[in-house]
Amino acid sequence: MFEAIHHIAIIAADYPRSKRFYAEILGFPVIREVYRAERESWKCDLQVGAAQIELFSFPAPPPRPSRPEALGLRHLAFEVADIEAAVAHLEAHGVAVEPIRVDPHTDRRYTFFTDPDALPLELYERG
């Protein structure tokens, strides 16, 4: 019945900054971008493998209550083939990345970083 994740929605405080981060730094292709005048809101759909990120802007959105243990979605993880190359790419673009760790249950390597609004993101190395 439920087959896959279609999209993850993210509301950005600074839409152009976040669009640059997801499209240019992380390299997710833009599928479409629209301005919804009645909501004073931009919406940009970005391709992430078989899924999408829907990036929104809204006037004066409230901040996230706390990080990372707030109730709700904890973080978004991106699968990568080479974690060192992904970390080097992020750091070359000025993105701070935590040290690489090993998941004791899967023996896969992972690390965390944040988007421009401090949303927690993870790199998880493909096994």
Can you lay out the helices and strands and say which pair or pack?
Elements: E1 7-12, H1 15-25, E2 30-36, E3 41-48, E4 51-57, E5 76-80, H2 83-92, E6 101-102, E7 109-114, E8 120-125
Parallel strand pairs: 1-4, 5-8
Antiparallel strand pairs: 2-3, 3-4, 6-7, 7-8
Structural descriptors:
4-stranded mixed sheet, 2,3-Dihydroxybiphenyl 1,2-Dioxygenase, domain 1, VOC family protein, Glyas_Fos-R_dOase_dom, 127 residues, 2 domains, alpha/beta, 17% helix, Glyas_Bleomycin-R_OHBP_Dase
Outline of the structure:
The chain has 127 residues and is an alpha/beta fold. It has helices at 15-25, 83-92, and strands spanning 7-12, 30-36, 41-48, 51-57, 76-80, 101-102, 109-114, 120-125. The protein has 2 domains: 1-60, Roll (2,3-Dihydroxybiphenyl 1,2-Dioxygenase, domain 1), CATH 3.10.180.10; 68-127, Roll (2,3-Dihydroxybiphenyl 1,2-Dioxygenase, domain 1), CATH 3.10.180.10.
Tell me the radius of gyration.
Answer: 15 Å
H/E element sequence = EHEEEEHEEE
Give me the CATH fold name of the largest domain: 2,3-Dihydroxybiphenyl 1,2-Dioxygenase, domain 1
Low-confidence stretches: none
Structural class: alpha/beta
| Fraction of helical residues | 10-25%
Output the strand order for the largest sheet.
Answer: 1-4-3-2
Number of helices: 2
Would you write up a description of this structure?
This is VOC family protein. This protein is of the alpha/beta class and 127 residues long. It folds into two domains: 1-60, 2,3-Dihydroxybiphenyl 1,2-Dioxygenase, domain 1 (Roll); 68-127, 2,3-Dihydroxybiphenyl 1,2-Dioxygenase, domain 1 (Roll). It is 17% helix and 37% strand. The protein has helices at 15-25, 83-92; strands spanning 7-12, 30-36, 41-48, 51-57, 76-80, 101-102, 109-114, 120-125. A hairpin with a 2-residue loop joins β3 (41-48) and β4 (51-57). The chain is globular and about 50 Å long.
